[in-house]
Specification:
The structure is a single chain. By secondary structure, this protein is of the alpha+beta class. The chain has eleven helices and nine strands. The strands form two sheets. A seven-stranded mixed β-sheet has the order 1-4-5-9-8-7-6, with helices on both faces. A two-stranded antiparallel sheet has the order 2-3. Helix 1 packs antiparallel against helix 2. The longest helix has 34 residues, at 54-87. The termini are far apart.
C-alpha cells in the first residue's frame, strides 16, 4: 500500500503541473480527492489493515492528500496570475488616465441646504409631510374659505378621492401642530404644486420653504427680526428690506417682504421675495378641534409663519432669467453651479 500511495501522489502532482485551466484542475481534484477518488478509496481500504499498521498508513495518506491539495491551490493561483498578466499585457500604464466627470448638487438643492443651515442656527428644526394632502390640512385648517380661488380645480391638482397635491408646505405646519405642543419652531422645505401656466417665471411644481414659530408672547418684532437676519445672512449684510401690508387667510396681520435689489448688484428697485404674518387665531382653533384639547389656545400662545419660493430666490441670486432652466437638465447650464 505504501507504493500505491507514493504512485498516486506522483501521478496527481504530474497531472496538476500539466493542467492548463481551472476545469482541468477541478477534474484532477475529483479524480484523486473526490468521494470516489483514488486517494479516498485507499482510505476506505485501511479497514482491512492490521491494527498496528493503520497509524503509519493513515499518516502517509494524509501527507499525500495535503500535498495534492497544496499543489492544486498553488496551480490555481498561478493560473489566475497568468490570466491577469495576459489581460493587462496590452495596457500601457504610462498613458494618462481618463478623467471622470464629477457631478454637483442642483442649484436649488444648494440654496435649500444653505437656507436650512441659517435657520438651524436660529433654533429651527426640519419638518416634513406628504406631497398628497387632504383639504383639511391644505385649506380648511389654514382658514381658507370654500370659495377661495386656490381651491378651484383650475388652480389645484385634485384626485378623484378628494385629496390633492399640496399647493404649499403650510400643510406641514398644521401636521406639526397636530402632533406637538408649543413651543414649536420649524421650517418645512419641499415641493408644492399648482396648475400654473408654465412660462419663464412659473412651473407646475416648485420648491417652497415655509416656517412656523409658536410660543407665548411671540410678536411681529420676532417675525421681522427672524426674516431680516435670515435674508441678510443669505443675500448680504447691506440688504435693505421692507414689510408691506398684505392679506393671507391664515395670518393676521400679514405682510409681503420686499428687498431692494441694488444689494444684489441690480437696478435699484424693490422686489417681492416672501410672504409672512402672525398666525390667525382661527388656525389655532382648527388645530385645537383636531387635537381635542386647548394646547394652542390663542389666548395663551401666539406665533408667526412665513414662506418663500426657493426657485425664485435662486433666479435672483444667480441672475437666471428663465425658471425652466432649472428643470431642463441641460448640462451646459447646470455645470455653472
Amino acid at each position: 500500500m505504501d507504493s500505491q500511495i507514493d504512485q498516486l501522489r506522483v501521478e496527481a502532482l504530474q497531472q496538476i503541473a500539466q493542467a492548463t485551466d481551472e476545469a482541468g484542475l477541478d477534474a484532477i481534484r475529483v479524480q484523486f480527492l473526490g468521494r470516489s477518488g483514488s486517494i479516498s478509496l485507499l482510505s476506505e481500504g485501511m479497514k482491512s489493515l492490521p491494527k498496528e499498521d493503520k497509524p503509519r498508513f493513515g499518516k502517509l495518506l494524509n501527507d499525500a492528500r495535503t500535498a495534492v491539495t497544496s499543489a492544486l491551490d498553488e496551480a490555481r493561483t498561478e493560473l489566475q496570475a497568468r490570466a491577469d498578466r495576459a489581460a493587462f499585457s496590452g495596457v500601457d500604464v504610462t498613458l494618462p488616465g481618463i478623467a471622470r466627470a464629477q457631478g454637483a448638487l442642483h442649484p436649488i438643492t444648494q440654496l435649500q441646504d444653505r437656507a436650512v443651515q441659517i435657520f438651524r442656527r436660529m433654533g429651527f428644526a426640519l419638518a416634513d409631510g406628504p406631497d398628497i394632502e387632504t383639504e383639511f390640512h391644505c385649506f380648511d385648517a389654514l382658514n381658507t374659505p370654500a370659495d377661495h380661488p386656490a381651491r378651484n380645480e383650475q388652480d389645484t391638482f385634485y384626485f378623484q378621492d378628494g385629496r390633492l397635491l399640496r399647493t404649499h408646505t403650510s400643510s406641514v405646519q398644521i401636521r406639526t401642530m397636530e402632533s406637538a405642543v408649543p413651543p414649536i419652531r420649524i421650517i418645512a422645505p419641499g415641493a408644492a404644486y399648482r396648475r400654473d401656466e408654465i412660462d419663464a417665471t412659473h412651473l407646475a411644481q416648485f420648491t417652497q420653504m415655509e416656517g412656523l414659530y409658536v410660543d407665548s408672547n411671540v410678536s411681529v418684532a420676532d417675525l421681522k427680526g427672524t426674516l431680516e437676519f435670515f435674508f441678510r445672512e443669505l443675500l448680504g449684510s447691506d440688504a435693505q428690506f421692507r414689510f408691506r401690508p398684505h392679506f393671507f387667510p391664515f395670518t393676521e396681520p400679514s405682510y409681503e417682504v420686499d428687498i431692494r435689489t441694488r444689494a444684489l448688484g441690480n437696478a435699484d428697485r424693490w422686489l417681492e421675495i416672501a410672504g409672512c404674518g402672525m398666525v390667525d387665531p382661527a388656525v389655532f382653533e382648527a388645530v385645537n378641534g383636531r387635537r381635542g384639547d386647548r394646547a394652542f389656545d390663542p389666548e395663551k400662545v401666539t406665533g408667526f409663519a412665513f414662506g418663500f419660493g426657493l426657485d425664485r430666490l435662486a433666479m435672483i441670486l444667480s441672475g437666471v432669467p428663465d425658471i425652466r432652466l432649472f428643470t431642463d437638465n441641460d448640462q451646459r447650464f447646470l455645470r455653472q453651479f
